[in-house]
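worker-3 :: picked Dihydrofolate reductase family protein
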Amino acid sequence: MRKLVYYVASTLDGFIAAPDGSFDFFPLEPDPQLVAEWPQTFPTAVHPHLGLDAPQGRFDTVLMGRGTYEPALAIGVTSPYAHLKQYVFSRSLPPSDDPGVEIVAGDPTTLLRELKQQPGGDIWLCGGGRLAGQLLSEVDELVVKLNPVVAGSGIPLVARGFEPYRLTLVDSRPVANGVLLLRYAATGR
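worker-3 :: tokens ->
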């Protein structure tokens, strides 16, 4: 069965973006180690600059919320991860004209469970916090790029009511710019 992997950058105080959705306070220079290990998590447009040619990896699908998708739309990019099948969860966006992007107004859990039953690679949950909150009980692995930044407020790693969800630390190691890569397996089911 395919796994859902929430791979995301976070501040020390648990925010994945500023209150307005911007994320330019995170290091923008990609770490070569993360490029090598997680090549599919970089937007298709930057692949040539990173030396990536049709990156191979564990993912063939990406899930994102409207707020994660909209920065690409704002600069005219309708398919930010063209190398993956893209599902964007939004009740306000119109259907996409891009064949690589499907706008989904329905329940993300229902679609995710269907996707997990289909053959293919693992599924990357790209963001945002509300979508992660809705799908947390379906997350099989959480990989956090913990940045040495305290934001004070913003979009949380997971937005949902108080409901503790247990994880088991599988790996932790430093990468560039003082970032700590933390990998957890779900145990909260």
